Amino acid sequence: KAGVTQTPRYLIKTRGQQVTLSCSPISGHRSVSWYQQTPGQGLQFLFEYFSETQRNKGNFPGRFSGRQFSNSRSEMNVSTLELGDSALYLCASSLGSVSSGRETQYFGPGTRLLVL
Amino acid sequence: KNQVEQSPQSLIILEGKNCTLQCNYTVSPFSNLRWYKQDTGRGPVSLTIMTFSENTKSNGRYTATLDADTKQSSLHITASQLSDSASYICVVTTLHNAGNNRKLIWGLGTSLAVNP
Fold this sequence. Notes:
The structure holds two protein chains of two kinds. By secondary structure, chain A is an all-beta fold. In chain A, 0% of the residues lie in helices and 52% in strands. Chain A has strands spanning 5-7, 10-13, 19-24, 31-38, 42-50, 53-57, 64-68, 74-78, 87-94, 106-107, 111-115. In chain A, strands 2, 4, 5, 6, 9, 10 and 11 form a seven-stranded mixed β-sheet that branches. Chain A has a four-stranded antiparallel β-sheet with strand order 1-3-8-7, with no helix packed on it. Chain B has no helices and eleven strands. The mean pLDDT of chain B is 92.
């Protein structure tokens, strides 16, 4: 069974631009979560989508948004990019919602975003 | 405040040696604790998950322990190999709100380097 895939793997943008990242979960998984990872902050939870509905949201500004399609694929969008948005963005999928506390998340390789 | 603290921040050991990584948490209420391994350039991979009633859980050369009374967990790696070089992240699950949702509290990780 194929793992979680993320595209693109690397991205360079300038301040003020917007970016869209894509995540394809493991086949059959209905939950997709997004995380931002930086050296000083570790993994920071952005949001979780389950069956096309946002289930949970972290403490990020409204510039960060996402959506999930009927095939469980998910996209994350960041508008008006700031230098501080440079990070590794990880996507994780699971069979059920992470909110249950019992699900094991399977992570993709991430998209490394550099904002200049 | 719910926090997960890991120590040491980084560790260098020789191949074949054992090592122990620490995770202390102030998360309450407690649901479960997981250890993840994250290789450079990849997403985290789940190693173990322990609930309140479990004291020890093994996964090959990895053994995790949990003391729910002192709110401490450790990850012991036996007979280390070069491929063990990675970041090891401790994650504690707690209740998110008055409902049935859980929230994951991520530690910053311990960076382990195994040298030949």
